[in-house]
Amino acid sequence: HVQLVESGGGSVQAGGSLRLSCVVSGYTDTRASMAWFRQAPGKEREGVAAIYTDTQLTSYADSVKGRFTISDVNRDTVYLQMNNLKAEDSGMYYCAAGARPGKWYDLQLAGYTHWGRGTQVTVS
Question: Pick from 92, 3, 1, 111: which is nearest to 52 by CA?
Answer without folding.
Answer: 111
